[in-house]
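Task card 7
Instruction: Convert sequence to structure tokens.
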Amino acid sequence: MEEKINKLIQHLQGTCKSLSEGCNDLEIDEDKLTDEELQHLDSEIFRCVECCWWYELSEANDYNSEVICNDCNEDKEEN
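Output:
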């Protein structure tokens, strides 16, 4: 289990692929991902709701109860 989700995390980080695209690339059945596997993914990376890129959690910022990356957060602060 852990090896599969770690490969998915590595594959998605730094891309703007959807979870479905990442699973398809690695031939993982998205429908068979367990809650535990999805929680592990969420504990390592997040997908910015603004730019849709995957980042490490250390780059997460709360903005209007959504999670955005540092770059998008800086853009919001400038405007």
